[in-house]
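Batch manifest line 606
LIGAND: 5-amino-5-deoxy-1-O-phosphono-D-mannitol
JOB: complex structure
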Amino acid sequence: MCGIVGYVGHREVVPLLVDGLQKLEYRGYDSAGVVVVRDGELETVRAEGKLERLKESLTGHSLAGSHGLGHTRWATHGPPLERNAHPIVDSKNRIALIHNGIIENFLAIKHRLQEAGWSFTSDTDTEVIANLISSLLDEGDLRSAVRQTCRQLEGMYAFAAVSQSTREIVVARRGPPLLLGLGEGEHFLASDPAALLAYTRQVIFLENGDVARLTADGYEITNLDGSALERTVQRLNWDPVQIEKGGYKHFMLKEIHEQPQALQDTLAARVDFELARVGFEHFSIPVEELAAVRRIHLLACGTSWHAALVGKFMLEELARIPVEVDYGSEYRYRDPIVDESVLAIGVSQSGETADTLAAMEIARERGARLVAICNVVGSQATRFSDGTIYTHAGPEIGVASTKAFTTQLEALYLLGLFLRQARGGDLEHDLLEALAHVPQAVAEALEQEKHIAQIGRRYHRVSDFLYLGRGINYPIALEGALKLKEISYIHAEGYPAGEMKHGPIALIDDDLPVVAIATGDRVAEKVRSNMQQVKARDGKVIAVTDRDPADLEGVADEVIPVPRVPHLLQPIVNVIPMQLLAYYVGVRRGCDVDQPRNLAKSVTVE
Ligand code: M6R
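JOB STATUS: finished
ARTIFACT:
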């Protein structure tokens, strides 16, 4: 959710930066700042809280100049205090840097730099980038220092740096969006076109691995080796609705692509990587009570129920507490056994789903402590719960849930870690590092989009689909089938792969595509046998794999590779091809993917 704006040219820069940041205000943030480069000095002003606070601080400064950067921060490493706000200046005062993303190996680099005498005054991973660039400046110019730095960074980033001695901005992108705006004798930079549209409509969307240098008179883009790259200049003829859709054809596609960012934002400020601790901001249940929880009830509907099914695996493995998962609509009529030792967790994007709310009330009336995992601030579910874990997915407009789902999974994993910690368990570093890597893994899974669009084109005329998964990925088969039903109106069923032989195998013929999720060491081989059973009956197999696609030759008709992550987090990655397949099949069939027939975004009736 961090917002980035930059400018080098002839205009007064501070009002321009503040105006750009204002356009990004909808993302929400906890602090903001600007840097202006003037007469060999880096002048920064930063403030905690809303942009208004930064504006107030700016009135007390005579910050003038025509070259600078602005940033709104959504905390990931370190609390939202002024010292953690961007721009961050390196410890030799040579460069200022703004950044969006998570640097996974920041601790290792920080320790190395500390040993070499570099000091740190913030809790951010961003300061590691600033000091690293500065440490490499003696060997070359800002651009080569940025390229060398990028080669050492693991994780996701979009950042921009200015140095006190040159009139240029150097930017790098791997993951979060970044675009350049082109003008006459001036150049712009932003994380979102909305920040630039008032000044220019000529833009270049940077790609992963790009490093660009902007001056008032021009721009150059290279890869990390320094080879020059050509990128297409686009003219943004966007109307207001297109601006809202960020240039995507549908909200659903935009929201699918927002997932790396949404996952990063949901993780933000909940994990202290240095101390290996997890915490939540809206959570008043005392640790002793959490430690005393004996059973967990997860209550939800639709896609959120699928998240709860995955959550059962996460919570049981991380916290070792038995978990029951119920549809809200079933729980409320089944006389559940609840007492004070139960922690009831309502999972709901909207926080307004009538069945989920009714189930949560029943659990509370019978003595359970109540937690909501929710995306909408102040919604009903959050108002009557003892604690809320907000999924910071941002507004989800498409009726089909996508980014709300993956952020719910991440929130459930965080809750598993939190309960483990409350019960005296260790949060090993690899559990946290795995989480930090998920946004990047999801960004890699999204790279299969064109391939999946082609698969969608090949199969969009069929009338049925079968989805198979096992263990923690069985709910992902259910979610894949639900997404396809909602968006394309094709009948689809999700099934545990091992159960296929007990019935659904009768359906298989050459008209039935079977989507098989074959990831993970323990069950991938079993799912492979299920695929062979499908092939033996002339069925068509679309396989999702975390191995070498060549291993599935002769077994699958289509193979969609996904990055491998630790097994509890693999569903977050595996659902990406499910969402894209449903989207492209739906679009191909001419369906209204954002507002499918008969559905509502929030179901507030029984
Ligand atoms: O707002 P909620 O998460 O409580 O909504 C629950 C379901 O209505 C919702 O997930 C529905 O299934 C979506 N259309 C799925 O894409």
